Amino acid sequence: MKPRQKKSRTYYYFWSIATVAVVTGQIYVGNGFRRMAGSADGISADINLLIETMIFGEVNKITGGDGRMPIID
Q1: Cα separation of 41 and 49, whole Å?
Q2: What's the whole-number average pLDDT of the chain?
Q3: Torsion (CA) 7, 9, 12, 13 in degrees, nearest 10
Q4: What are phi and psi of 62, to 5 degrees?
Q5: Which residues are within 8 A (CB) of 54 and not within 5 positions of it... i.e. 6 or more apart?
Q6: How deeply is 40 buried, as exposed, middle or buried, from its count of CB atoms within 10 A (0-12, 13-18, 19+)?
Q7: How far is Cα 19 from Cα 28, in angstroms, rounded to an integer?
Q8: What is the Cα–Cα distance from 56 to 73, expressed in whole angstroms?
Q9: pLDDT of residue 28
Q10: Model's pTM, two decimal places?
Q11: Residues 6+ apart with CB under 8 A from 67
């Protein structure tokens, strides 16, 4: 039977530091993605509001409405 391989202390230090670095990087990227998604949601909401205002504004002008957006119940 072969003797077991003895791993040096630096082996464990290396893999511990590498693991912490990867986990920290994942958390950093995840937070950045979350912030980017929130920003994209805000931009999308602004674009939707602009389009709805343009569409309903034109409809109200054609039908002679008072220019307010309709309330949908």
Answers
A1: 12
A2: 80
A3: -150
A4: -70, -45
A5: none
A6: exposed
A7: 14
A8: 16
A9: 95
A10: 0.50
A11: 57, 60, 61
